[in-house]
Amino acid sequence: MNNEGNDPVKLLKEQNAQLQEQVEKLQEKVKQLEDDNKRLIDGNEQLIARNMMLAEKMDIYYNVRMHVEWLKDLVRRHREMMAQADLRSDEELLAVIETRIESDEIPLPPEFGIKEVAELVGTTQTRIADLYKSKTIYQSVDKYLDFLRLMRALRILKEKPGYSIDAIAQDSGFNSVRTLQRKIQEAIGLSPGQYRDITNPE
After folding, report:
1. Would you give the DSSP letter of residue 79?
2. Which of 71, 76, 101, 96 is nearest to 85 (CA)?
3. CA end-to-end span of the chain
4. In a 3-state reduction of DSSP, which class is residue 175?
5. What is the pLDDT of residues 119-152, one digit of tens each?
6. CB within 8 A of 183, min separation 6: which ones?
7. What is the DSSP string of 119-147?
8. Number of helical H runs and strand E runs in the chain
9. Cα–Cα distance between 28 and 2 in angstroms, integer?
10. pTM of the complete model
């Protein structure tokens, strides 16, 4: 009788071979799953990076849009202010200018001119120019501002005898000592030093 078919060693070898084949197939599936998982991770990382980039772009877009809206509102309010300013009478506008510049004593550096005056009171440079030409003795804004600078310089010369001429020129808004000296000489026929001596005889 042939017992090869019932040989337990042979059966074990066959079973072992089948199990080995199944293990290899499982290992291949595991490797495939690991590869798929790696691709998913890489894809997720790319997606996260793209989402972060999009979020940054959205933040930039939002900030730009907010800035644009702020500028639009600023322009609108400026136009309203200009319109309201043009509704004021010449006398009212002059009074506002005098209050803002003379009473508040804002600084008057050499570069402060018609543009800054118009912005200060919320009207156009054209109206300011026409106003000073037709309604004041100064004929121009520059002459008016120079007059104010001169008055400030004379007041400082009188009230602060220890101040240097250079410091007075800067504080009153003249661009140089020579300009200050010339303006005072033209106005009162004296030099700054002579005016100081007269107003401070001691």
Report:
1. H
2. 96
3. 151
4. coil
5. 988 889 999 999 999 989 999 999 999 999 999 9
6. 146, 149, 150, 153, 174
7. HHHTS-HHHHHHHHHHHSSSSSHHHHHHH
8. 8, 0
9. 39
10. 0.56
* Other Cβ atoms within 10 Å of 174 Cβ, number: 24
**Closest to 92 (Cα-Cα) out of 100, 125, 152, 76:** 100
User: By C-alpha distance, which of 137, 136, 132 is closest to 121?
Assistant: 132
Q: What is the pLDDT of residues 96-124, one digit of tens each?
A: 888 888 876 788 899 999 999 999 888 89
138 within 8 A of 150, measured Cβ to Cβ? no
State residue 139 phi and psi, 5-degree precision. 75, -20
Structure tokens belonging to residue 96? 């506002």
Amino acid in position 120 = L
pLDDT tens-digit readout, 46-95: 888 887 787 777 777 777 777 677 777 766 666 666 555 566 788 889 99
Helix, strand or coil, per DSSP, at residue 60: helix
- Nearest alpha carbon to residue 85 among 37, 122, 114, 112: 122
